[in-house]
Each structure stands twice: as C-alpha cells, then as structure tokens.
Amino acid sequence: GGKARSLPAGSASSTVTSTRPPGRGRRCRSWPSPPSWSLGCLQFLPATHFRDPADPQRNWIPFDRSRNPVWFLLQDLPDEVGSVNVFSWISCLDLRTLAVLTNSTISSSSDPHNISFNFLIPERGTDKSPYYKLKAVLPDSNVTVASQKKIEDKLNVATPEGNLFWSFPNELSPIIIGTTQFSQKRYVYISADSIVKGKIEDLGRIDLGTYAIAAVEDCTKRIGDYVSIDVLNAVQKTAPKNLVYTEPYDKDACLLDFDVLVVEPRKLRKDLIDSIMVWFRAFSLANPRDQIRLAVTLALYDNYLKLPSNWKRADANSDILNYNGPKNVCSEGGRQLQEEGNGDEWQLYLDQKSLAVLG
Q1: Membrane-spanning residues where (predicted)?
Q2: I need a surface site. Which of 147, 157, 269, 307 has the fewest CB within 10 A?
Q3: Are 190 and 86 in contact (CB under 8 A)?
C-alpha cells in the first residue's frame, strides 16, 4: 500500500504456538434449548480456564477468582489505563464463534482481566439467554451482549446512510459503532468468525497519532484491479473537495482488510460516511462487497495507520485465524443452516460441555 503510516516492525505480538489439538470426536449436533433457563446451571459447569502463552506445554490454567471481576454495561465501559475494549458484530447468531473468539483472545493475552468484550447480536426482544449462556461458559470473562437495534435506533434506516449500512453491516459496523457514538472510547474491532493468537493489548494500546483508524491492508487486492485512475480523477474533480482525497491516487495501493481495526471514535471525521457514499455511488462492480471495500478504502485513503501484516489472516503463523468449527449460516430469508467445520483449532477453546450449553 504505502499510503498510510506503518506501525514499526516488532511492535506486534508474536504468535502463540500450541500443541496439536485434541482428536475430533463424534460431531456435535445442535442441542435443543431447554424450555426455560435457570442460573442454577452455573453450578454444574467447570470454571473457565485459559492457556498461558508462556507455557510451552500449553496447559489449561484456571482464572484467579479472588480478583472479583466487575461486569460493565456498554454505556459504562472501563476506562482505566491499559484496558482494551473489543467489539464484534455478528449477523447470523452463533454463540460458539463468540465463545471461541473470547477464549482465544483471553488465552493469548498477558493481561486477560483488562479485556472487555462487547457483542452486537440480532434483535431478540426480551430473550437474554445468549448473555447467560456465554456467562455460563465463560464466567470470569468481561462480556456484554447488546442488540443491534441500539445501532438502528441511532442510525435512521430510511436515510441513504442507514440503508447503505444495513446492506453491508459486516464491512461498515467497525466504523458505524464509532460514528454513532455507540462507543465513545477507543475499541478494537474483531470479526466474529476469528481465532485470535496474538496479544490484543498490543493493538489496543498502540499510538494512533493523529489517525482515527488503524487497519490491516489486503495487498492481494489493489485499487487498480477494480477501477481506472481516469475514473478516480473524474470523481475527484466533481465531488465535494472535503469528501475526497485531493492528491493523485496510487493504482497499486492495497485495499483495506475488515477483520481487525482499531478505532478512536473521538477522532473520526464527521463526514466519513458521506465520503464512503460518494465512492460507493461512483462506480458499479460485479461484486457489491468488493464495491463497499473499495469505497471505504478510498474514503480512508492516506488517512489511517497501517497495522502489521501478521494481523492479516494468511497462515497458521498469523495472529488471527479463521474460525474453523461448525457454525450457523443464515439464508436471505433469515433461515438458519448448519455449516460443517473444516479444522480442529477451535476445539482448543471450546470443550464438549460448553458446546452443550451454547449449541
């Protein structure tokens, strides 16, 4: 890319190695939810354990319950020095992926008690079972669950901006969380279908300088692969000057990756969504998701901090991997289907008893 300031080499976390995952047993089937939930189920579950990254044997270690963790509401997130707020948006609810994201992040951290997880899930009315199920499996983690309706209430879906967001929530939610002031404090956005092997605190505490966003670049895709420089120049000449980059664009600049972002809401441009809309409307690509990724990349051109490439999903040595277990997949009509897993890494962070609760 070369169009954003890079974080110095070595400032990212090193990869946490692990032994071979336990052998896959009989494939789990979805368990029907009980007719009612009782907090009494907590008594029958083992305490949450985590893996010490410094332990070469990767043994499971129980959390220290003497620290009496405090549970925070979304509007009252911890702001003590060193705390890291993690946000994630999931369009098709699957608590297994959220549990693996949480436990893998904690397992890889050297300061797990200073990490809070904030999950935005589809509206479920008064049903609070997702929160209680996650708390049953991960009682010592700092987890909050909120409805995506809270974002909808802040962003009028009838407006062009609102319509664009609900068309591409996975790509735009990392930014919308900040522009709607849903969170007023710095946060690390992690895609819900992730296994985190790096130290999340390294991201949460980086110096953003004057930037509002830090992101990983995906250099397998470049601006010139999708649009010509002539088209970019034409848009520059006709669009409001405050909404576009005024210098020449580099056709070889990389597109942004949306799996990991660090966002400082107080520094976000008020017109960022307007800028994204200008670029989204400027051209039409065969794949709408390529179109929104290109639009966001152009709106943030030369105005973000480049995160180290080890936070890009690439191989087993990356600091973030794809969740490779079974998961729910939602159709256009909202129907949930089961997709089989294709790996064992997820089983390092979720045992069979936990699956019975979350399934």
Answers
A1: none
A2: 157
A3: yes
